[in-house]
Amino acid sequence: MYFRQGRREDSRENLLQATERNPKDGPTWMRLADFAEEDGDLKTAITFARNAIRVAPEDEDFRSRLMELLTASGKDKEALRVKLTALLTSKNPDIQRVYQEILDIAEEFYGMQDVGSCIRTYELAFDKLPYICSSRDQLRVIQLLEEAERPEETLRFFLKYWGASLLTADGKTVSPYKIPSSSSVMETVKRCECIESMKLPILLKFLTLMVRFNLGRVVKDRIDSVATERNVRYHYMALYDLAKVCKSTGLADLGLKIAKLLALHPKSRRISKIICLLGDLQVECGQHQDALSTYRHVINRLDPRCTEARLSLGNLLRRLGEEKAALEILQPSHLMSQPATTTPLRPSTTANPNSSVPKRSVSSNRLPSKMDLDSSSHSSGSVSDIEDEDAGDEEEEEDEDEDLDYEEEEEDQDDEDEVSEALKLSDDSPSENSDDNDTSAPMVPSLDQNSAKHLLCNDPVAMRIAYERCRLLDAPSTWKVFLRDACHLLFYDVTQVYCCEKPDPSLMFQHFLAKDSPVENLARLDSLGSPETRVSGEDLWVLCLRVFDILLSHKEYAALDRVLAWASVLPYVVGEPHRRRHVAHLFASVAFYLGDGETVMEVLRHLEREFAHTNQFWNLLNLAITMSGELRLARFLLRRVARDKNNLAASLMSCGDCMTRGSSRYSIALLTDVRSRHPEVPMISLLLAICFLNISVHKHIFSRHKSILQCIGFLSEYRRLRGECQ
């Protein structure tokens, strides 16, 4: 009656009183939910609808109404859970339809990117209806678990739903929920039983998980039975995963058996990572010579750019004491084809384009003359074919050793030239026709498309090889070569972009190269290539710090100044505040040591926002201005004072700078303005006295008496404010 009369509030109050008298009245709760929805209060409407569901859990209309409210409020997942609860508690005789609807709900969870809820929904379907679930649905759950990287739950799923069981010595079955979290229970496992109907792909996944959790001893015989040539034809990638896990868990002999089968089969013998795994397992088993032949087979005939093979071969050669051969393998020039013709950079009126390309020694550019990495002849990839190449490889190694010995003799004969070469990024002098007064580079320079292809940052594989070579060279006996290669890796790309020997101060700590430039990849190194082979920005930053440390230890401050100048334009340095701050502080210190006040000034300008509140910053800035004779530094101070008149340090420095440049009257005007805002600072009175004293000694002055009196007056005021002093 109240509702028909339009008295909604009275109607709602009566309904609430009715629910208090009879809380089990479902329709009353739903009427309250309708009222709350009409008022726009979906949260209250959902609460009333849930109360109605508690009263009548089997009422489909109530449940549908609750799902509509949840969907309208944006709670789609809760709506699906309500529907799932209804299906699990329903007494519908059509079991197949209920099972299919539960699976549909699981896929809806997956569409919402909730993999955990999707997996739990599948498991609820298997628990409720275990006799109609198909192996295809179970395989779908395994794929979801692998996608979510949950190996422990995957193993439990096998033990719960695939008929696999783990037994102790006395025949007791181990609970799936104690595997593999309990190490004590894992040690008691002695046998493993699987149903005969388990298909081979599923069995291989299960065996891989067992080996991964150190239960390989339990399934070793079963692995031997499935590692056959017949199974390699259709399941070689699953066997590859199994062999890889065997290598990491100490079952190298078992993994080696599988890897040999893969290396001999026509379908898998041309896959580089499979042959590399064979080499790794041969190393684990102590077959070093076979491993050398395997890695060389990958590099020479399968994939010359295979990073894994080159790194593994270099590390193995180093372990065997063949340092020179290891360095030659880790030469990035093997992977990067050099441009056939010299492509000019963007025209620059400031420096010779040749000066931007750092020189390298002959040995760093030389390719091995007796070794063809891109051989046109392809082998079958079998182990016997690999072994047949040993004799030819030994001859090639002898020729390589002769070349390396010749290079060593050249280095010994001209040691001083090598030191200067290692400590310099470029030895080319600027063009004679260049403008001496303008040494800046283009603000946003670029390379043409062909030249950009040969930059290291555009080739993650070559960059990783160059990085590993630098790590190998990082030793006291090879610090010169290390500096050369490290500087080439760190700064070669940016020197190709900026046509100058040293970047202009206006380019330092700027974000010009982070976007829309040929070297923009340097700003996103953490997303280039695969995670196993990429060189991150942190890796290159650590290499930068190592270069700084070596140059400091050898007191090569001039070279360090150039290195820091190029480091200040690297995108992965400019983009990180702590790296930028580290380079700026070291750069300012080195510039102070070299007496380059202008560079210090430019560096300090980038630190002003962060350290302007400290006295140390203004003291250093004052030293830089005093050390430099540039007039534009005085203009910078004047602009700084104009922006912030309350900055006492900048005001005093500006007045002192004007006074030292002979503008005493202008300095007096500035000091008078500062004195009006800071009358208690004695330094202002002293500077005013000095300014009037300077005016009094000018030759053209008409009368010195008035200036001397002003000087004495300000000195008296200084004495009053400062107190007794010398």
Structural class: mainly alpha
Spans where pLDDT lies below 50 across 5 or more residues:
1-5, 337-420, 423-451
Helical stretch tally: 36
Assembly type: single chain
**How many strands appear in the DSSP assignment?**
2
Reported for the largest beta sheet, the result is: 2 strands, antiparallel
Arrangement of strands in the largest sheet? 1-2
Region (Disordered): 331-446
GO biological process, one term: transcription by RNA polymerase III
Biased composition (Acidic residues): 385-420, 429-438
Organism: Schistocephalus solidus
Write a concise synopsis of the structure shown.
The chain has about 725 residues and is mainly alpha-helical. It is about 65% helix and about 0% strand.
Textual characterization of the structure:
The chain is mostly helical and 726 residues long. Among the domains are: 330-339 and 348-359 and 424-594, no CATH class; 633-726, Alpha Horseshoe (Serine Threonine Protein Phosphatase 5, Tetratricopeptide repeat). It is 64% helix and 1% strand. It has 36 helices and two strands. The protein has helices at 8-21, 26-38, 42-55, 60-72, 76-89, 95-111, 115-128, 135-147, 151-161, 183-188, 200-212, 216-226, 229-248, 252-264, 272-284, 288-302, 307-319, 323-329, 362-365, 383-388, 390-413, 415-423, 449-452, 460-473, 479-497, 537-553, 557-567, 571-574, 577-594, 597-611, 615-627, 631-643, 648-660, 664-677, 682-696, 705-722; strands at residues 165-168, 189-193. It has a two-stranded antiparallel sheet with strand order 1-2. The protein is flat and about 120 Å long. Residues 331-446 are annotated as: Disordered. Residues 385-420, 429-438 have a biased composition (Acidic residues). Residues 334-367 have a biased composition (Polar residues). Pfam families: TPR_16. It comes from Schistocephalus solidus.
